[in-house]
What does this fold into?
Amino acid sequence: MSAPTLTTIEVRYFAAAKAAAGLAQEKVELPADATVTTVLDTVRALHGPDLARVLERCSFLLDEVAVRDRGARVGGATALDVLPPFAGG
It folds into this structure.
């Protein structure tokens, strides 16, 4: 039986997400068939309820392209940006 294929994605946090995660970015190793939801579940488990609350209101960019479907696969992507709502604008 072969080992599962893994992929690594850089998760970049901004504003309130950065504060809740306690860091600006991190690399996360995931199964090759991971989705945006998989990434979010993984970082929730790493950083706890404060980040989980922020993530509920965030939007996301996958390699700088807006992602609305959290079931979108992340394989081949290099970065997921976590963007909380910003004041102003």
